Amino acid sequence: MAGPASLLIDDGRIARVLDSPTSELPAVDSIIDLNGLTLFPGFIDAHLHGALGVDTMDASAADLHRVSEFLITQGVTAWLPTLVPGSQEQYRRSVRAIGELMHREVGARVLGVHYEGPFVNAEQCGALHREHFRQFRSAADLDELPKIEDETSVHLMTLAPEIDGGIELVRELKLRGWIVSIGHTRATIAVLERAYEAGARHMTHFMNAMPPLHHREPGPIGWGLSHTDVTCDVIADGVHLDPFMLRLLVRLKTPDQLSLISDAIAATGLGDGEYQIWGETISVANGRTRNARGSIAGSVITMLDAVRMMLSLGVAETDVARMASTNPARLLRIDHDCGSIEEGKRADLVALDSEGQVRLTLVGGRVVHDARGS
User: How many CB atoms lie within 10 A of CB 2?
Assistant: First the structure.
């Protein structure tokens, strides 16, 4: 929060925000003293593949529950399980488990599903497996992808608009109410403009899985930097993007147009070592992932690590809150309900100490993690 204040929480929501001592609050059941702590809206991670050995591609609802419980210790109050290109059976099993966990009062809330692919460019595959990539021929190709049958669920897809049928795919997704993000792409400016006209307004892990910026071929990076109403998300781990580039992006895109993501894989929270993920060995050393091809294979950070990184670069707390909470909520179309500390919003909150450690996490006004005594 910007300064000393008190919150009145009623029925899981922020009923009042008072720039005054707690003595001016009405009679309450209990008071939580956050003296010396900084209160942020709960972090929202729109791109997370797993943690603690759990991979969203083969996780049960119980496995995902473990991830949700871990995330609240990292200040994350809502997340979007993210799937890499896989078989139809893998997709069905994963989406079924995600749907089972939604609306349960357990840890960080599961919001829906993020398909990273399968309609992406094989020349910018990164750590994704090309054998599962697809072309878009008709609406029937989209019908094959499992959905969560819940009207409140979020469906997001990262795609490359230059693939065969890519622009029509953007249009079809928009018609169905999906959120479209451009990523794993080599699209030209002309194709990107067509995708924009069809409804694409966001870019996935900006600068990663895209060709470098070139003065004669500006490509996705140049296009993303130039469009003031195209938002981007970034992996702020100091590996995917150099800290200098993170500072530059904050300056060029502004904090209003940037979201933080983790892109965390199943090895997150387990330390250095070798792990079997997505059918191959992925090694982790000094916080950097690497697959057999030598490519970076996701990250092993959490949103808390990304927040700490941005704060260490001198970004204001209010701007970091936008990037970690408000902007992801707006992208996922849930900003009417959460993502900021405002009256009427869900009391999804996280309190950090001066060292950037999570001391308290609330989800829907309930204390779900309390480390103030440790």
Answer: 11
pLDDT in tens, 205-253: 999 999 999 999 999 999 999 999 999 999 999 999 999 999 999 999 9
* Residue where the block lists tokens 């704060």: 311
Catalytic residues: 263
The answer to whether the beta carbons of residues 165 and 135 sit under 8 Å apart is yes
Type of residue numbered 191: V
Residues 282 and 274: their CA atoms lie apart, in Å, by: 6
Q: Look-up: residue for tokens 């893998």?
A: 90
Q: Mind listing the pLDDT tens digit for each residue in 45-76?
A: 999 999 999 999 999 999 999 999 999 999 99
**Cis ω before 21 (30° cut-off from 0):** no
Please, what is the Cα angle at 261 between 257 and 262, to 5 degrees?
Answer: 160
H helix runs in the chain, sequence order: 61-72, 88-101, 139-143, 166-175, 189-198, 219-226, 243-253, 303-312, 317-321, 327-331
